[in-house]
Amino acid sequence: PLPLLVVSSLWEGRKSAAGMADALSIVSAVAECVTYLMLRRPKKQQDSSHSTNFSIISWRSCGRLFLETLSYYLLETSETSGHFGPVTSAVEELCGTLVRDLQKLDVASSSFSETSDDEEGRGIAVIKSWFWGEEGLQRTLSLENVTTDEQSSIVRKWNTFLIKLLSSSPLSSSQEQQPSSRLIPACKQLFHFIVKGDNNLATAEVVGRSTTKTCSADEGSLLLSTIRYCGVDTIFSTIQDAVETAGEGGVGAASLSSVERFCVNDLLRWILVHASSAMSSSAIIKTDFEIFKLCLASLPSSTRQKKIWETVLRELIKSYCNYTTLAIGLGTLAGGNQERGDGGDGNNADTVRCEVLDAFAMETADRAVLEFQHSRDILQHLNDKEETPSSFTAVGKRRRGNLSLFLRTCVGMVRDRPAALCSGGVLVSASVIRHWIRLCCKRGSAVVVGAKRKKLEDNLILEDESGTNVLLETLLNLAASSSGSNMITRDETVKLVYESWLEGGRTWDECAVNFFNSTSHSSDNAEGKANATLREQVVSIASSTLCGDIQAEPPANDHALLELICQAWAKRAARLGDILCPSANSSLLDLVGLSNIELWNKATLYESDGVDNVGNHASSEFLFLCLMYLLHSIDTEEHRRDLLFNSSRPGGAELLFVHVQSTCTSKSSAPHLESFPTRTARNSQLLESLGGRDGLLSSESLLEDCCMHNINLLSSLMKDEIMPGNGSSMMNQVLTSLSLLTSLLFPLEWPSKKHKTKGNEDSKSDEIVAADVKEGDSLWYEKGEERMRVKVTVVKIHRDDFPNLYFTIQLSDNGERQTVASRLKRYPKSTVVSSRELLPKDGCNNAAQRDRVGRCIVDKLVKPFLSDVCSDDKGVDATARVKHEVLAECMNIVISQCGLVSLGIGSVRYEIFQAVTLMERGLCDALSASELSLAKCVPLLRCLSLVMGYGIYTKPAQDNVSVLKMDPNGSIGKLLELYENPSWMQAQRSDPMEKFHTNVLMWLATTGSALNDGETFRRISAMMYSLSDIVLLDGSCNLVEDSLHLMNAISSLQYASDSCIDYSSVDNEDEKSVMSKLSGCFVNLNIGDIEGLWIETFSSLLQQNYHKSPAMLLPAANSSSNELCDCLADPVKRWCAFQLLRLFAQDSQPIQSGDDIMIPSETEQQLLEWKEIMDEEEGIELEEDVSVAASWLPERIMSLLQNIGNDSAFSHSEPDGQDRLMRNLLVWIASLEILDVAGNVDMRNRSHISSFIQKTNALGWIMTSALQEADLDICRSENIFACLDMEDGMDDFFIQKIATLVLFRTVESLPTLVKTWYNDDCPRFLRQKLSAFVDNIVAPATLQRELVRIKDATTFGEMTVSGSCVSREVVATYQQDECALSVTIRMPSTFPLRNVEVDCQKTMGIAENRWRRWALQIMLMLNNQDGSVLDALLLWKQNVDKEFEGVEPCPVCYSVLCIKTHRMPDLECKTCHNRFHTSCLYKWFQSSGKSVCVICQQPWSGTKV
């Protein structure tokens, strides 16, 4: 028919369309046209022409054309999801057209039968059996005989088709009406094929049989859409049943069995497979459960539904299905059908609730709690235990997935609204909720009921930062929900919030805090009152916990654990502060127990008693750390001060602060060996957290009030008004606190920067502790010799020389360098002032304040106890002696810190002066007595020393004598007479009064600044020498302390003697002897005894004497040269030891001279082994080399050089590997220093010593090790010798700098040996590195240093030498007789790795062979003999002089003087009478293999001349 021809032509026209969108539009038009033709009612026409009549074949052609458009959509159109454009719109339009047309055809087919007369010739009525049958639509939708891609396309497109069909069909909401659709057989065919791969619709029993097939996500979506469209009963019934029961709405028993088997076999298998696949999404799992939900709903009874659900759930649990899958399933089954628009009902949740789910929910909670406790167990992490508790391992295999989602689903929590319940409600019973609460609140329940407390570490858990306790989070969200109060009581809510408070982290921040922030703090409404009550209960329990913890005994001997406990405690305290009302924030210290003064006093008492010192120290450390961590949890310094000071507590906040300061002060068994900054390190940290002095001064009179409270506390202790019998143990710590607070109130730093004693104590607040530095800190760096401070940022902390930390800092110009903590400061300007600036100027605005504090100290701490000081010390107990010393140190505070600002009778100055005069007079009387009384002298000497600023427990001061204008000559004169008494001194050497001598040294250390007479200084120097003999006895139990007192005394006297005109300590042998003895103490004392203050004082004394005259230290260096080498392996002693050893190396006098040089036994044994494989003459020459080396090198250095090559067996990563390497490198530097000094004395020494070094094979190991450690990325302007500087070298004294210097000095001093090693033995991966370093750094600097030495030389005579660093040439001109001799030495850029060039062509009046011989001499000296340019030029000059005197050169080396020994030819041939150097001739014999004359070739028969 013509219409069909037109439509067919249109269908064919799609192939000629301009684009895909046009082709789709054509296909859509064809579908509409064909549908119209099959649905139209034909008009009756008069002429029944062939062109308009349709036969059954024509109608089938129409139907086939429609099915082709459907097939075109299913197979040839592209995906439209997530895309936009004309093609996408055309595809969507085609799908909609097909849905509408197919619906129309379905309705028309269902309205008429094939034999009905009402259809009046409609095409669909004629062909409906064919169209909807196996030859029509079912074949189009068949998945058989198509490719996999085509199957996937059909599944996706038909699913989209059904979804549109469901959304547009008015019957889609009623499943019972769907079986009348003609689409159902085709849909069932697809369903069965996807489930079983079989199109057989004859029986439904095939569905439910066990197979291994699974469905994809697209297939699952199609199955779900199919079930929704067709209905479960229709899908699982036979075709006959479907036809017979279409109008009845019922199915047989066989259908029920098929549905159940489908659920427990196919559907369950799909869920498990999808859940176990990492590629599966939650959407496909949700689809599986949607299908399961529809299947359950089709079962006739709730009993059957629950039975099938329990069976499936039990299998899912048994198969370890993950939590996410279970949560999705529970939510899907219990919730409504969003696609269908129903919200679900209680029947869904009732079906899901079952005993299996309850048991699994409780088991899951048990496991979750055990896993959380195990993961948060700090002790488990610290001990690094591999085994786990049996209760943990018994839980079984770990289940994966989102546990939090599962738990929220169990209690009906909506994912995006955690405080709301979903329509399904709670899916577990109330007993499960109770069980969960009991699991979470074990610790909380114990606290609430008052159970016996455990150790602090027993309940210690890591902060739950990420919120891993999902069970607690779920319960808190449930309790916060509107209906949660029906399931969780108020008491249970308190326990849950308390548990969250203990754990902290995200759960606390996001869940628990909402209970307090959900309403205002007002309690006007019922909810507000309930929350206020909840807050009160939680605060009460938390406060009780914190107070109990703070009073518990902390763990001893485990600082790491103590730190963790304190951090956890402080975080809990901070969380408690977060939930307090604003009006209660100031009482936080009261709530946590830190405002308990008795607690701080107890810790201070324990710290001081010395009984069970480890545990007691832990108590004070525990309180301090808890307070510091709590303060640091507060964001600003102002708020921290508010917490500590703005509270109303008995005695005032200032009194509490004083007690805290006293507890923070450390107490050691050897107070003399601990500096004031070290003792108050914890105090400094506390003050810094409060904003330092500026922060405390922000509150008017705060610091003064603290000082007054401190004075009153100390007075009460001294009067035994508090802690009677125990107060003496706290006095020293309270005294230190008073000195610190006074220094903050009146910031005058002692001692002055000019003169440092007691370990160079600068400003405590300005000093940096290396361990406290963090990356990113902004500090101030003291740059250069001027110590100008520039702001820097710490970019890296180096711990490879631990505990000696050093840092990489970034300067303001973005440059970087490395330094140590001593060069870093906190403030842009130094607060250290000269002692002369102590007294305030007239009109100073704080003079009245100074006088008030000073007057209070005098009235309460000095005058009440002054009368007892001058009494006899016999019968005085230890407490009284402590009080006397406290009194004396308080006077030091008044003089050096408060300042003597008032004048006149009755003033503070007057009363202090009277007290000091009284004590000094008593001392003179005691020293003048016929029999010296230690009971009188020792207390007076000690108290006077403390008054004058010796500073054991207070800040030391140096100029108290000058400030007080006191004349100590009386007492010093008496002491001089005593020590100049030979008989008394003899008695002291046999039975010394150690305490007396120690206190004499303390007195001399504080009064030295008042002396100005040269004779007195000489007498005191002799006295110091005598004292050193007594106090520095070997085996003395107080050797460390006594030597420290001796160093302080010497330092003070040397400083004072600098201003004396008629005295010089440089020429005083007594002082040199004392320094030698102190050096002996330094090398012999144990490391642990001298670290800290002792080594700081010793290094300061070295610097002081070095700047005055290095000769002062030379005897000390010479006397301990061997021991100093061993000290280089000790990080504590290393710097001082090297400075002394370097002074020894720079001494121009050999350690042995003459003909009787003793070679060390170890070296002598090695020499014999070397000589065994040598000729006799070579052995003699080597023996001479070793002998010369032994005359300059100490025995220990020679031994280390011999064995240093054997150290290649140890690894630098070994525990002591770095220390041994550092020792070897420093010994090598000292050896090179000795080599240069010896070479300057006599150039022959250089050849001898370098030959010995070459024989030891040490150079190769040194060069390889140094290249591996050195930092060669340095610029030319950087001072490579900075690490050796006595003043600032300690800043750069680490292995990278030392290794770099070793490379430089080795190449400079031993060029020939380095060149030989570089060419023969240098590893390939180091060659380029060394070559670049020599080219960029060594060669330019070496030439420059060589030119300086040439310029300073005085031995050239008539020879003139000039040079240039630019042209790298040295030119020497020498006028001899009428000949003008000229030599040019050209240094290559990589010398000594490349040979020098020598040019003598400008020489006038000399034969060519002669000046060529001279050029050869210089090249041999520079390229083969480790000689310097200066040495080569001097040797050339000497050779020229000898040749002009008529001496013939050696025919072997072409030189008159031997390059090595500088001897003239001394072996003469009897045949030709030519003369040779002995060494040259024997080398010729050895190389030629025959003993004949070099010239005449006759058998050698020569004589020595």
Draw up the topology in text.
Blueprint: H1 2-12, H2 20-39, H3 56-76, H4 86-111, H5 123-132, H6 137-140, H7 148-168, H8 184-196, H9 217-230, H10 232-235, H11 239-244, H12 253-276, H13 282-298, H14 302-318, H15 323-334, H16 346-352, H17 355-375, H18 378-383, H19 390-393, H20 403-410, E1 413-414, E2 417-421, H21 430-440, H22 442-448, H23 470-480, H24 490-503, H25 505-512, H26 514-517, H27 526-551, H28 559-579, H29 588-592, H30 597-609, H31 613-632, H32 637-645, H33 653-664, H34 676-679, H35 681-689, H36 692-697, H37 702-718, H38 728-745, E3 778-783, E4 788-798, E5 806-810, E6 816-819, E7 824-825, H39 847-866, H40 878-898, H41 908-928, H42 934-947, H43 960-964, H44 969-979, H45 982-990, H46 994-1007, H47 1014-1031, H48 1039-1057, H49 1069-1084, H50 1087-1090, H51 1093-1108, H52 1114-1119, H53 1121-1127, H54 1134-1145, H55 1161-1171, H56 1176-1192, H57 1195-1203, H58 1217-1241, H59 1243-1256, H60 1258-1269, H61 1295-1309, H62 1311-1320, H63 1324-1352, E8 1360-1364, E9 1369-1376, E10 1379-1386, E11 1397-1399, H64 1408-1424, H65 1429-1444, E12 1467-1469, E13 1475-1476, H66 1478-1488, E14 1502-1504
Helix pairs in contact: 1-2, 2-3, 2-4, 3-5, 4-7, 7-9, 8-9, 9-13, 12-13, 12-14, 13-15, 14-17, 15-20, 17-21, 20-23, 22-24, 23-24, 23-25, 24-25, 24-27, 27-28, 28-31, 30-31, 30-33, 31-35, 33-37, 33-38, 37-38, 37-39, 38-40, 39-40, 39-41, 40-42, 41-42, 41-44, 42-46, 46-47, 46-48, 47-48, 47-49, ...
